[in-house]
Design brief:
mainly alpha; single chain
Length: about 120
């Protein structure tokens, strides 16, 4: 999960730049005059809709909490189950905000890993 979060976080600037270029290309194909201010406004809207920094931060925090909980010498099954739900929620949000296939693939991989962890948590008291 840590590796996937790092990978997605590293690609975010490239993703937004590619979307800016795609927007410019669409305008060019339609022979529409490019209003630079309007393009920047559209990019701000797109960046806000696809901003996944919070989700990535929460994924990091939940993984740290899972590690912390696993070190406890008391029953932790319910707490781990709750953390799996939270991890899954963040992966789902990441997927829903995805604007490129790389991020969608990363979200699917996260879901697979989280489901595998959830299956193991079912065996923990």
């Amino acid at each position: 999960i840590d590796d996937i979060v790092i990978e997605v976080r590293g690609k975010l600037p490239q993703i937004l730049e590619q979307q800016r270029e795609n927007l410019r290309n669409r305008f060019a194909e339609l022979s529409v005059d490019l209003d630079e201010q309007r393009i920047e406004q559209e990019m701000v809207v797109l960046a806000q809709k696809s901003d996944v920094d919070e989700e990535l931060d929460r994924l990091d925090a939940h993984v740290k909490e899972v590690r912390k909980v696993l070190k406890k010498k008391e029953p932790v099954g319910r707490r781990l189950d709750f953390l799996m739900q939270e991890l899954n929620r963040e992966a789902n949000t990441l997927s829903s905000k995805s604007i490129v296939t790389d991020t969608t693939r990363a979200a699917v991989e996260l879901k697979v890993l989280i489901e595998q962890m959830r299956e193991q948590v079912q065996n923990v008291e």
